[in-house]
Amino acid sequence: MRRPLRRIGRLLFPIGLSFFCLVYGFFFALTAPYLLIPFVIPILILVLLSIWALPDAPHAPLRAVEFCFAAVLISRVLWPNYLALELPGLPWITMLRLFGFPMAFLLLISLSTSANFRSEIHQSLRATPGLLTCVIGLAIMNFLTIPLSEHPASSLQLALLDLIYMVGMIVIGAWIARTPGRGARYIELLLMMAVPIMLITIVETRMQGVLWNGHVPSFLKVNDPAAIRALSDTTRGTTGEYRAKATFTTPLGLAEYLAVLTPFFIHKAFRARTAIVRILSALALPVSFFCIIATNARLGVVGFLVSVLLYLLFWGLTRFARDRRDIIGAAVVYGYPALSIAVLTAVLSIHRFRMMVLGGGEQASSNEARQSQLTMGIPKILQNPIGHGVGESGNAMGYAAGDFITVDNYYLTVSLDNGFAGLALFLAIFLTSIIASIRTLMKHPDLVRDEEISLLLPIAVSFSAFLVIKSVFSQTDSHMLLFALVGISTGLLYRARGVIAQSAISEAEASASHDRGRSIRKGLRQRLSTAGTVRG
C-alpha cells in the first residue's frame, strides 16, 4: 500500500512545487520591487527549516556571534540610525541591520548545531528566576497580536526586529557574561563609547546644530519624514533653545542614554582598580550632567537623580549587610529617609531645581499632551485589553491624527500594542533582574568584593532609572542596550551562584576537616587515657 502512495507522491510533489514556483515567480515579477517583503517570507521559512535540520557540529560560529553582538552595540551608539541605504521595496539598510541580521542568523545556527551552547544558555538564563518565561512570552505576544493590526506587514516586521534586538541581545549577553571578565569588558565598552557621544554633544551645543547636517552623502539620505526630522536641528518651540541629540534621533533619546549610564560612572569612581580610572569616572559625572542639561530634557535630569539616589541606597544596604558595625553603611541606611526628604524639598523649593525636574511654563504643553494621551489611551486599552498589534499604538489612540502621531508614555504604547499581558511581561523582564540582583547581593554581601559581580549593583540601578524614564518617553533608541544588560546581569548572577556554591563546598570541607581533626584528637585522648589506666 505504501509503494503506490510513494509513487503518487513522487509524481505530484514536483508538479505542485513547479506550479508554486510558477505562481510565485509571476507575482514577484508583477509586483517587484514594491512588494519584496511578502515574497521573502517563504524563503525565510525555508532558511529556518534548513537551520533547524542542521546536524550537531563540533564547533559553532560563536566568535562571529560575539563579533556581531559587539558591532550592534557600537553601531547603535556611534552611528545615527537614520543614515542608511534606501532601496525600492526594502526596509532601510542601516548599520544596525547590517550586523543585527547576521547576528540572529549565526545565533540560530549555533543553537541548532551545538548542544553545549544550548546548555550554557539555559543555565545562564535560569539564574534569574522567571526571566526566560517573560522574554519568550513577550516575543510570542508580539506575533499573536499581528492579526489584530491594521498594518500586518509592518507589525510583522517590528515583531521580527524585537525578536532580534530583545531575545537575541539577552541570550547572547547571558552567554558572554558567564565567562569571567567578559561581562565587565562589555560594560567598559559602553562607558568608553559615552566619551565620544559627550564630546559630540558639547561641540553640537556650541555650534547649535547637528554636526553632519549638510554633509551627508546622497546615498545615505533617507527620503522619509522621520529621518528628515532626526537629521534636522531641534529647538524648544516656546523658548527657541537648542536641544542637542548627538547620534540619537531625539534629544530625549540622548538624555535617556546618559541617564542609564550614570550608575556605572558612579560605580567606577568608587570601585575601579586604578586611580586614573576613578578620577576619569568621577569627572565623567558632571560632564554627563552638562550634556543632559544640553538636551533640555527633564527625563534625563530625573533619571540622573534617580540613579544617584538609588545607587547610594543600594550601596549602603549591601555595605551594612556585610558588616553591621560599619558606621558609614549604617549612616547611609538610617539617614536615607532624611536625605530623600531633603532632595524633595530642594526640588520643590529651589526654583532652578524645580525647573530642571518638574519644568515650568515652557514645558506646560508637553505636560498637557502627556495627560491628554493618558485620557485618550486608557479607554482604548480597556476596550481592547489584548492589544492592537505591534506599532499600532499611535493609530489606535489617534492622538494628533493627520499629523506626526506619537505616544510619549512607553507603558501606554506597549499596552495599546500588546495589551495588559504585554505590559506585565515587559515590566517583569526588568523587575526580575532588579530583584534577583539586589537579593543576591543582600543575602551574600561578600560578593561585592568581586569586582565583576559587583556590577550587578549599578545594573539594577540603571534598570530602575530606565523604568522611571519609560513613563514619559516611548521611543526605543536605547532598548537593545538595556536588553544586552539584562543578559549580562543574568550571566553575572550565574557566576555569583557558582561562587556561592564553591564557597559552601569549601566551608563544608573545612567543617568536615575540623570535625575529623576533633574526632582524631578525641580518639587519641581516649587511647592515652586507656594506656595510662593499663599501666596503672
Question: Can you describe what's shown?
Answer:
- With 536 residues, the protein is mainly alpha-helical.
- The protein has one domain.
- Helices cover 74% and strands 0% of the residues.
- It has 19 helices and no strands.
- Helix 6 (131-144) runs antiparallel to helix 17 (410-443) and helix 17 (410-443) runs antiparallel to helix 18 (456-469).
- The radius of gyration is 28 Å and the shape is globular.
- The protein starts with a helix and ends with a helix.
- The relative contact order is 0.11.
Task: Give a brief description.
This protein is an all-alpha fold. The chain is built from 19 helices and no strands.
**Helical segment tally?**
19
Low-pLDDT stretches are: none
- The helical percent reads over 70%
Indicate the proportion of strand residues: under 5%
Q: What is the general shape?
A: globular
Main structural class:
mainly alpha
What is the gyration radius calculated from CA atoms?
A: 28 Å
Which properties best describe this structure?
single chain, 536 residues, mainly alpha, 19 helices, 74% helix, globular
Topology:
Blueprint: H1 2-31, H2 36-52, H3 62-78, H4 95-113, H5 115-125, H6 131-144, H7 152-177, H8 182-207, H9 225-231, H10 251-271, H11 275-295, H12 298-322, H13 327-349, H14 351-357, H15 364-383, H16 393-397, H17 410-443, H18 456-469, H19 479-535
